[in-house]
Amino acid sequence: MEEPPPAKRPKIVRGDDDYMPGNILEIELSKFMTFDKFKCKPGPRLNLVVGPNGSGKSSLVCAIALGLCGEPQLLGRATSVGAYVKRGEESGSIKITLRGNSKDEVIVITRKINTNNKSEYLLNGNIVPRTNVAEAVKRFNIQVNNLTQFLPQDRVCEFAKLTPVQLLEETEKAVGDPQLPEQHRALVDKSFVLKSIEVSMERHKGTLNQLKQQNAELEKDVERVRLRDEILAKADTMKKKLPWLDYDSKKAQYLEAKQRENNAAKAMEEAAKLLNDLKEPIKKQKEEQAVLDGKWKKVDTHINENFQKRAEHLANADQLDVELQGKYKAMQNLRKEEETRQKDLERIRKELAAAELELENLGPSDPGRQEEMKRLRAEISDIDYEANQVLKPRISHVESEIRRKMESLNTCKERMKGMDNKVTKYLDVLRDAGTGKIFEAYNWVQEHHKIFKKEVYGPVLVEVNVQDRGHAAYLEGQAAQYIWKSFITQDPDDRDLLVKNLKCFDVPVLNYTGDVDQRRGTFGIRNDMRALGIYSRLDQVFDAPIAVKEVLIRQFNLDNSYIGSKVTDERADEVPKLGIYNLWTPENHYVWSKSKYGSHMSAVVEQVGVPKFIENSSNAGENEKLKSQERDLEASIATLDDDAKRSRDKQKFLFNKSAELRRKREEISKLFQEEKEKRAGILRRIEKKRDELKSLEEPIDRDAEIAKFVDLANNLNIQRFRNAMKLKELLIECVAYRRSFIEKRISSIEFDAKIRKLEADLKQHEGVAIQATMQFQNFEKETESCQQQLKKSKNIAESIAPLTPELENEFHKMPTTIEDLNTAIRETIYEARSIFTLNNNALEEYEDRRQKIEELAAKLAAEEEEHGRSNTEIEEIKDKWLPALRNLVAQINETFSRNFQEMAVAGEVSLDERDKEYGQYGICIKVKFRQNGKLEVLSAHHQSGGERSVSTIVYLLSLQDLTNVPFRVVDEINQGMDQINERKMFQQLVRAATKPNTPQCFLLTPKLLPNLQYSEACSILTVMNGPWIRQPTDSNLSTLYGRKVNHMVLSAVPWGKPNVEGTTSRCM
């Protein structure tokens, strides 16, 4: 079932608020192209967007296209949406408000874009897919990709290059019935299909005739081929019997193998029966042998147990013997100990008497030695106190002070080294900037600094320190470049000497007289300055020696140059009111000056550059301070070293004296200690001997101990006798077990010999049985192999020729042996080969062509049917499309011709019809701009650029009465027109805007001619750039335009500053 045709576009009717459904009510941009913020409310009819080139008019066109689901490619600018985000920003947004079907209904479409080429769509504040927004746009027939509705500046040339065919396609999309482009496309597609069918039919007819003619020529050869094929078929039938004869042969072999297998099976069964008869007696003999084995093994267990018992008793006998010998030895030791005790008593009595005599001869100790030791101890204590408690802390303090001074000295040297590295870096910068011999000049001044009367500074770049990098950029921008390589003296003679010696190095020399500028006021920031973001003055943001700083201030007026913030940048026009005429901000440098011929101010604004010379560095003059500090530290360290050396020498002397006294005290103490230790040793020896004597004199009963050992020895002898009797009984028992074991073991061996004999006989019969089994297995394998070959032969025969009753009857008529059958086959083949044909493949070619003839005939019939159906469909569509299109072009031509007549020129629009070549149909525009000329087709060869622009805008105006689009956008179409054509074009636009149902129109232009005729249907939107744009007033608008118009000023601040929101004002 065919789909119903799309409904015709409803005619758009203007409402009470003078707006039509789909008109743009408001456009709001954020961070889009040249705008930070932008908002405007277009009028319902003709909107003239006026502004200089680069002010952002085309940004408005881009916003409308992208905001209404357009792709970046249709604008002819960047190909990615991220390129439309304002430079320096990450994201932006477009917000377009469309009028709905009533004045109370609005559709708000928002598109958010970012530099990653991502988009997010919002419909009435809700996030939705792009398709939802596209459907809302399509609802009002908004076509931003149609050049007749939306013509951006970068695609004006594309419209002029449209061919008649392309112009017809764009016109069909923009105006008239929405079915027209669909019908046109259907006609083009179906006519292409129809041509393809016709070409295919002609080709198939020719091929069919050719195939029929070729088959007629082959009919005689086909008859001979068929006869030969019949004979060959008979030979093939004979060949089919060959595998069945082979099958019969294999079947006979299989039956013979099966008979041999059965005979072998009987022989194998007989051998197995005999083998079972021989195994039975062997089994019985083995069972009896197992009983005997159990008996002798049991006796063997008793023998092992008897052996264990005898071993235990033998071990017990050995133990008893050892214990008995121990008792005898203990009795001998008691007798020897008593003899030894008597000898020790006599010896100790003699040693005790000798020790008592030695103690008596030693005498009392000398008391004078103790007094001498006390005196030496006191003197040593006094010396140690002075050395450790007085001199040692003093030395430690001095050494600590020396270490601290050394650390300061090292730090000072490191800082001086760092300063030298920074100086080298600055000198490299000056050399790279063009002062090639700055190193030589600096080294000369450093080597000869002693010959100057006063301090010489330079180069200035080395002496200046700026803590903030931004301030460094201001100072470099304020001061001339020559100053950074200059040297500064403080005495005229030093200046002359320096000029004479540095002349060859090409460096300036300046002399500072030392006078202070009395007119310079005290630095201070007033409240009104602080309110504008001014926070400092240029002479306060750097450090330098006084001479260097004064030269910079006087040379470059630093004390009158102020520094502000970004707030100051935004309110820069208020700064001159504070009496400040030189201002630095993070981005710009402002210099104001008063005119000599009036009171008005002029300003020069430059962008702040990047500092090339100055970087963050140490304090000015710090190098000299560090050198002075180094000299002071070295002198202080030398003094402390002398003091420490004297203290260490005195401490060493005291230590030596204390050591001598200690040596003397040690000698006296050693003598006293030796005497004391000798006396104590003698006393200890006497005490020890007395204790030993007392211990030896205690009485001991040796006879009782010996009697005790005798009783223990008698008990051990009794136990030995009992153990020997038990061993005798175990030996008798062991002999009986041995005799029984031998008897039973011999009986088992006799049974084993009988079993081996029976097993030998069994093994001999097993060989016969195995041979019978192997023979059976071989015959079984042979039978299985014959069976497999039989099955294979049958499968081959059935695959070649399945046996049917008819085929079996034919086989009975043929030879019954393979040799005879092969002979008959060869004879039949020779008979077939004797039939001669010119073309052996004639039959195959004939049948193949016959099949192709049938297929082509079927295809040709189907194509004829399809051709008739397609032709009918084309005629039906053409009957609907062509009259409607002719009527549409006639209406466009009527309006186009009338508009050209009103401009005192001539023009017409016609439909270029090409019969059934529907893809070549087009709209032909012919114009005439001269009285004596003739109508010429609109092209770059016949008309100028301005004439083509006029023709384009008139053609677009001619579509307005027929179009059902809510608005149209044309960007700078008047460029290239002369004043006459531009004025005519404008009057046509104004006249069209006053018609009842004319769509909303946006015309962008950088200028308008003076004294143009406006109407209340016109709205003028002015886009201007600049930091001091004045707001429009009623009086100046009335003076400018001379009649009542709707006017909106859209101000854009340069360098990306926030835009001033447009406000609508009525001018009388």
TrEMBL record:
User: Coiled coil as a keyword?
Assistant: yes
Coiled coil among the record's keywords?
A: yes
Q: By what name is this protein known? A: Structural maintenance of chromosomes protein 5
Under InterPro entries, the record lists: P-loop_NTPase, RecF/RecN/SMC_N
Q: What PANTHER family is this protein classified in?
A: STRUCTURAL MAINTENANCE OF CHROMOSOMES PROTEIN 5 (PTHR45916)
Sequence similarity: Belongs to the SMC family. SMC5 subfamily.
Keywords of this protein's UniProt record, alphabetized? Coiled coil
Q: Where is the RecF/RecN/SMC N-terminal domain?
A: 25-991
> Coiled-coil ranges per the record?
194-288, 317-358, 623-692, 839-880
The opening ranks of the lineage are: Eukaryota, Viridiplantae, Streptophyta, Embryophyta, Tracheophyta
